[in-house]
């Protein structure tokens, strides 16, 4: 069936003439979008390609057009988002263009900006969890941020942790995180040590409590590092960073160079961070020093740090 379409529509401050002459309706299904006017708007205002625009608008459930998407884009520009950042957000969730700036967007973004998150940080936050864009300020963001603020000595550290893991702001964050904080305290972690762990490995408190507890016990029993030792923190950093299979592989490298398990565990106990070194680096260090008769094995754990 051949059809001819000619329509003139306004979106925001832009006008579009959408027309097609003599095309098959079956063919059109695969080459156009349900919302051609919005696709044209994305191409002209944010530099979308035709394919990108059609892909974005396909995420909408209806052909309804936003009343004034220009206000949404203007707001993002006012909070110093680059055009590429705005494009990323709209690409993920074109529903943003239907938002009420004053009632929905402004309170949410201002709350996050007040806590020290910048434009690019906000984009990464919402890209990792797009549903966060539709959560309330007072019911979600502010309570979560206030809870997290108590765990950090400065907003700078808080922002660093959120940048590494935006999921710290996930729903029910405090309920999810608090059991891990209590567990760490049971193992002797001071507040500064907890903060340091959160800055370096924020995902630790987003795992299941049993997972973290197993890691803590392994540091104490397998590596034989007492929770009272200053090295316990580094043992935890090491074991939360690598899997059990990776530890076995690295032990195998030492064994291939003639090391017994007792000597290997001594190295891991004295310098647990060597567990996070690459296998290639460990192999190179061992190959280099194996022929040095003046190098005592008891000092190799120091050399391996470099």
TrEMBL record:
Organism domain of life: Eukaryota
Gene3D superfamilies: Transcription termination factor 3, mitochondrial
Keywords tagged on the record: Transcription, Transcription regulation, Transcription termination, Transit peptide
One Gene Ontology biological process: DNA-templated transcription termination
Pfam family of the protein (one): mTERF
InterPro entries: MTERF (IPR003690), MTERF_sf (IPR038538)
GO terms, molecular function: nucleic acid binding
Family: Belongs to the mTERF family.
Record-linked PANTHER family: CGI-12 PROTEIN-RELATED (PTHR13068), PTHR13068:SF198
Descriptive protein name: Uncharacterized protein LOC104216057
